[in-house]
Specification:
alpha+beta; HU Protein, Chain A; two-stranded antiparallel ribbon; 37% helix
Length: 129
């Protein structure tokens, strides 16, 4: 593997005002296609393969570690007695496995660096008196 800064390309661009702060799968496919200069169909195949691989690994009980980004794992939830919010009736909730993402140190630092820069930036409009 090369020793380049693996997450540098994730620096946020200025967000347009019409975006609601959510990236959809279609937007992710568009971004992969743009950055790697592939067709949208090729990029969609790659994105689907990555997602399918993560799901398949979790289904088989494996943990996925993406160095510098984070890890996906399963957490077990015990069975419990819950309540139906409409009727208040007691309901048995069975035990289950829940997928969980734990961000890596490098991702957390990158996000916090961007947030600190946003806080330190002067407000728009100058504010001069």
């Amino acid at each position: 593997m090369s020793e380049e800064a693996p997450l540098d390309h994730l620096e946020p661009e200025e967000e347009s005002e019409d975006k609601a702060g959510v990236m959809t799968k279609a937007e992710l496919v568009d971004e992969v296609a743009r950055v790697v200069q592939l067709t949208k169909k090729q990029a969609e195949t790659i994105v689907n393969i990555v997602f399918d691989s993560i799901v398949d690994s979790l289904r088989s009980g494996q943990k996925i570690e993406l160095r510098g980004f984070g890890s996906f794992r399963l957490r077990s939830r015990k069975s419990r007695t819950g309540r139906n919010p409409k009727t208040g009736e007691k309901v048995e909730v069975p035990s289950k496995k829940i997928p969980y993402f734990k961000p890596g140190k490098e991702l957390k630092e990158l996000i916090n660096k961007v947030m600190e820069a946003a806080v330190a930036a002067p407000p728009e409009g100058g504010g001069g008196v």
